[in-house]
Amino acid sequence: MKKLIIALLLFIVLSSANLFGQHQLDSAEITSSVPELFEFHDVIYVIWHEAYPAKDISALKSMVGKIKPYMEKINAASLPGILQDKKAKWDEGLKVLNASAENYYSAAAGTDDQKMLDAAEKLHADFEMMVRVIRPVAKEVDEYHKTLYVIYHKYYPAKDYKAIAGVIDDLIAKAEACVDAKLPKRMESKTDQFKSEAQKLVEKTKDLKTALQSNDPKTIDKAVDVMHSQYQDVEKVFE
After folding, report:
1. Domain boundaries defined on the chain
2. Which residues, 6 or more positions from 193, have their beta carbon under 8 angstroms from its beta carbon?
3. Exposed, middle or buried, 19 (CB in 10 Å: 0-12/13-18/19+)?
4. Dist. CA 156–CA 79, nearest whole Å
5. Which CATH number fits domain 29-134: 1.20.120, 1.10.3470, 1.10.10, 3.40.50?
């Protein structure tokens, strides 16, 4: 699992390299990942897919010593720049996950087998909710966000309109890909709403290209802000 995570992160780093240009940007800043959380999956997997189905209470109790160090790492983890807009939800979910872990420790110290099983189920569920907080709804949306993040937090503050123009066609293509993105099953009921907002994102991204051709800073700045707001509307579909 750890090797897979490392390989995935390396791929993301390499595929993102062309975005940076002359602007200093750590590739981790645009990676929608918190390694400390995903590494915890190694423990959750054993709990949920091995010990829990077998109702192996002894095995569940033995996991306490493995859970605690992972929880310490998760609590100390920092969100990358691209996930800062999710910090409030992350912090809220972290409180729930910590409470769930404490409940697990308490159940493991007791003699009630059902409480132990319930605690394992709750810990798994709360871990999954934490993953959902930071996991992109669709890879197409994540790819759009990576470029948008660089524009909005690097190029735009520096008024580097040339750099924005250099990635605008790529951003339009990524916006168009969002329209055709397949949502996960748990989100399928929101497909029509998502497509509607994604289509607006295509329009606002194209509007930025038109604004760039005007060479008018005020027009460009307004178009960047409108495009960014529309991306936020896309995200709100899943709140």
Report:
1. 29-134, 139-236
2. 237
3. buried
4. 22
5. 1.20.120
Q: Are 99 and 46 in contact (CB under 8 A)?
A: no
Give the burial string for 90-111 (b: 16+ CB within 10 Å, else e): beebbeebeebbebbeebbeee
| Cβ atoms 117, 52 nearer than 8 A | yes
Give the helix ranges, DSSP H, for 180-236: 191-214, 217-236
Main-chain phi, psi angles of 95, to 5 degrees: -65, -40
Please check whether residue 209 is in contact with residue 172, taking contact to mean a CB–CB distance below 8 angstroms.
yes
User: Per residue in 94-115, pLDDT tens?
Assistant: 999 999 999 999 999 999 999 9
pTM above 0.70, yes or no: yes
